[in-house]
Amino acid sequence: MGNVKMISPAVPNMPWQERPEKIVNAPVWRYKENPIIGRNPVEGVARIFNSAVIPYEGKFIGVFRGEQTNGIPYVYLGRSEDGIHWDFDKDKVRFVDEEGNDFMPVYAYDPRLVKVEDTYYIIWCGDFYGAAIGMAKTKDFKTFTRIENPFLPFNRNAVLFPRKVNGNFLMLSRPSDSGHTPFGDIFISESKDLTYWGKHRHVMGRGNEWWESLKIGGGAAPIELEDGWLLFYHGVSGTCNGYVYSIGGAILDKENPSIVKYRCTDFLLTPEEWYEERGFVPNVCFPCATIHDSATGRIAIYYGAADSYVGLAFTTADEIISYIKEHSVTGESDTEIGRR
Ligand code: BMA
To answer: Does the C-beta of 307 come closer than 6 Å to ligand 1?
Structure first.
């Protein structure tokens, strides 16, 4: 274990590759055999990308954004022994209401998967009179029960914290419009019961740097550290040739995560490989989950690539925390409370 301690279970069988010797400008390195999920992975599904995974019963399980051959995105369940090779259910996840009756969203995309106490929560973007956040819970990955939509439209990129803070569930989100939103900051909201949300706070504004100057959005569930929360998020720039999605990193205050303690002015990963630069939507690296091992400090980042594939990248808690701190610039727009 390194110096930076992650407050989470040990996951000794997590996927891992050592840092290659010859890389520059990279606190994060890609899995050599990327992408880990290619095109047409399931009958009726053309592409899987922007997906979230979690350790489960000694193996791994995940909720995957499957773009069906009719063009409608939906959530598919996948299982894996090693976190790299995945078997997908042929049928999409069936959501039910509290009475057990079918309650399917019109569509569902960019799912996140977060365990809080003994329950797993799936959070996605769906249709509620426009783009909005949908949510469901499961304990066994057999029954998926919808819970109230947390926020009014329009909103995307909702990410739950993996534990309550000061007795409340916490969720990041990114209010938006219903189209290809050309703006957006990350906010945080609190709830005692996952039904009523409030105490909304601004967390981070889009950055000054070109790579995140248009909009930002939460990515993977924050990783708890001894003295903060490590957040991987996406930052978007609007070039003359369209949007470019890169991965950024920040450290939020442990007791009040609306306070940004450090924010990396440099991207951690930006589209460079063929599977990131070429695809249904070129130039997209979109993080949705990590698997991390507190015993070794290893972190695996799962990200959607070019709206076509799933990629895997690695770092360590020591390396990423030092990199973020060494390259940190926070600004006035980074937090409503807790200005430096
Ligand atoms: C965003 C979301 C993501 C997608 C990205 C790039 O608005 O829809 O699912 O990866 O655009 O197309």
So the answer is: yes
For the whole model, what pTM was predicted? 0.97
Structure tokens at 182: 């050309």
Distance CA 83, CA 98 (A): 31
> Cβ(154) to ligand 1 under 6 A?
no
Give me 14's structure tokens. 């997590």
Label residue 340 by pLDDT band (50, 70, 90): very low
Rg of the chain, C-alpha, whole Å = 18
Residues in the chain: 340
- The CA angle 286-288-289, to the nearest 5 degrees, is 135
| Ligand 1: residue whose CA is nearest its atom 7 | 180
Ligand 1 contact, 172 CB (< 6 A): no
Could you tell me where the beta strands, DSSP code E, fall in 176-284?
186-191, 197-204, 215-218, 223-225, 228-239, 242-252, 260-263
Atom of ligand 1 nearest to the CA of 65: 9
CA of 143 to the centre of ligand 1 (A): 28
CA–CA gap between residue 226 and residue 321 (Å, rounded): 12
Joined tokens for residue 300: 């695996």
Q: Of the residues 75, 156, 174, 239, which should be mutated to test ligand 1's pocket, given the most ligand atoms within 8 Å of the CB? A: 156
Q: How far is the CA of 209 from the centre of ligand 1 (A)?
A: 20
pLDDT digits (tens, 9 = 90+) for 275-318: 999 999 999 999 999 999 999 999 999 999 999 999 999 999 99
Domains and CATH numbers, the chain: 29-335 (2.115.10.20)
- Amino acid identity at 324: I
Our answer on whether the CB atom of 334 is closer than 6 Å to any ligand 1 atom is no
| Cβ atoms of 197 and 191 closer than 8 Å | yes
